[in-house]
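=== RUN LOG ===
request id: a7f3
mode: sequence -> structure
chains: 1
length: 251
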Amino acid sequence: MEGGWALHSVVCQKGDAGSLLATVRRTPWGPDSLWNTAAKKCTFLACLFVLLMVSGACSFNYAEVTGEETAEQPDLIMNGVSYSRVRDGKEAFSFQAEEVRRYEKRRIMDITQMAFEKRDAPGNEQEIAGRAGFVQLQTASGNGAFTEGFQIVIPKEGLTVEGLNVYWDDQRRLLFTAPEEVLLIKKTDGTIMSGKGFYADLRRKSWSFQKEVAGIYPEGQEKSTAPSRAEPLPSSELSPGAETSLTGEAP
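=== RESULT ===
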């Protein structure tokens, strides 16, 4: 069945009897591109989490709430979350989380030990996969913080991006780290790049490191006239700790 949905292995512990109303927009995925994938990733996950809570696939335990609700008390807790989207009888998207907590008043969703995978339509090959120790999503804005270690793998690009913390501004389509935070980019051809203060503008398809750029480019590799996302190295090797601002653009 084209675009079918499947949901399983969800345990709901606690809920509030308040109204849960949301409109879930199914966003189609674009071409096999790092920028198209990253630009839609957080918006898609935000819609996914809303779907999990309003789908009715689990029975809510509406506990009696005495007194005024506090901002620290979650309205909904789900343990052992596992979600699948099925296309033509094959798993097209999967998502797992150890725990999901939703806070209605603060409009925040906390996800612990998250992992996801998307497969393309033609050959059902892995298109993108990722994981994070902890994710906090602002349900109203779509902004998110991926912390306690994260990794994103894009096999068709031969690309792996990993670090400790990264942040997403959904309205401005910005992916960035704190100024002193290190981000690592690796490619299957042996290219390795790291730097502090990563900043990517997905609308302009450009990115930069603010400082302390270091990297290795394998000898004997032919560079294309249009640099790829991990290849605008000024030399085959950059010394660690160099106070350099490095920028690049996606073709």
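=== NOTES ===
The first strand starts at residue 4 and ends at 8.
Residues 1-69, 223-245 have pLDDT under 50 and may be disordered.
=== END ===
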